Amino acid sequence: MALPSSNNLIHVFWHEGMLKHDTGKGVFDTGMDPGFLDVLEKHPENADRVKNMLSILKRGPISPFISWHQGRPALISELLSFHTQEYVNELIEADRTGGKELCGGTFLNPGSWDAALLAAGSTLSAMKHIIDGHGKIAYALVRPPGHHAQPAQADGYCFLNNAGLAVQLALDGGCRKVAVLDIDVHYGNGAAEGFYHSDKVLTISLHMNHGSWGPSHPQGGTIDELGEGEGFGYNLNIPLPNGTGDKGYGYAMQHLVVPAIEKFEPDMMVLVVGQDSSAFDPNGRQCLTMEGYREIGRTVRGMSNKYSNGRLLIVQEGGYHVTYAAYCLHTALEGVLNVAEPLLSDPIAYYPEDESFSTKVIEAIKKYQKEVVPFLKDA
Ligand SMILES: [Zn+2]
């Protein structure tokens, strides 16, 4: 194995206080005990999943390529670059009064607020590390996740938009244009909403076609939610049919994501990564395997080398299979590192993929975007 060089390291930002966010047990993510089940399961967004992500980076074959950094809590003032004061006050009040279910499945319990501040602060530190030139690639290993958190609304296990805060920090720190690629299986509605009117931030989300799920998530994630005003065309939604796997995602990357980023020419790239688009995730209906994540990682690294001088922030979101999410994180980062030979083989992926439907949908999205999105007209 080739030894890592200083410019091929991933700087990981982590703080163990994030494990103190306890989302409880129940029927899946409801927190409910119906009274007739002997075994209540942990909420899918539990500390175990992140403990395995942590340990696989510490003790897995990728460990020589990792440089560890201590995370830190965000200041309340820092949150206001993305969130409203009223919303932040609501969270502080929920914490002060002993906790609250802010929306379906989204529990702010004792310890949760401190964890959320650590997730936001650690992601900001990771971005600052890149902006200050201390490293090219940083990964914020954080929970609670953030990509559903909107400026004034919690949603889908998320309180603070960790990636959104980092994007704003990049813009405030002199970046001209930031591209955000979200491969979590759910729509990255938080960053989309936060930058919906901006042409400085290109948000691209690949997700399953789950649609709106209520008042906390009014966005549909459909192809016609393109942004507004100056931001028109700078929110590209790629809802992929259920069952889309490595080949379908590869096709979408090649035909939709790469051409859009080529046209946009960002000087900072953000990969919002959720391993809930894997074939074994309880919250997702997509079929990515470890190899699919590896390939996405490679493609993203190629784009960041070409456009953003190698600068890439990776932010952790969902991923709820306690074993496979960690394995898929490992291979996504292998792809980002561009290691010649796979470092870790897949112990469980053996389900076939039918890409015939997903490629048709992707072709239709491509046609639509070329017709409607000004900056993609002759892409
Ligand atoms: Zn998700």
What would your notes on this structure say?
- With 379 residues, the protein is α/β, with parallel strands linked by helices.
- The chain has 10 helices and 12 strands.
- α1 packs across α9 (324-337), α4 (112-131) runs parallel beside α5 and α7 (246-264) packs parallel to α8.
- The model has no long low-confidence stretch (mean pLDDT 97).
- Bound molecules: zinc ion (ZN).
- Residues 184-186, 274, 276, 317-318 line the site of zinc ion.
- Zinc ion binds at residues 184-186, 274, 276, 317-318.
- Residues 43-334 form the Histone deacetylase domain.
- Keywords: Chromatin regulator, Hydrolase, Metal-binding, Repressor, Zinc.
- InterPro entries: HDACs, His_deacetylse_dom, His_deacetylse_dom_sf, Ureohydrolase_dom_sf.
- Belongs to the histone deacetylase family.
Keywords for this structure?
379 residues, alpha/beta, eight-stranded parallel β-sheet, 12 strands, binds zinc ion, metal-binding
Write the layout of secondary structure elements.
Blueprint: E1 10-14, E2 25-26, E3 41-42, H1 47-59, E4 66-70, H2 76-79, H3 85-96, E5 100-103, E6 106-108, H4 112-131, E7 137-140, H5 162-172, E8 178-182, H6 189-194, E9 201-208, E10 235-240, H7 246-264, E11 268-273, H8 290-307, E12 312-316, H9 324-337, H10 356-372
Parallel strand pairs: 1-4, 1-7, 7-12, 8-9, 8-11, 9-10, 11-12
Antiparallel strand pairs: 2-3, 5-6
Helix pairs in contact: 1-9, 4-5, 7-8, 7-10, 8-9
Bound molecules: zinc ion (ZN).
Zinc ion binds next to loops.
GO biological process, one term: epigenetic regulation of gene expression
Organism: Anisodus acutangulus
Cofactor: Zn(2+)
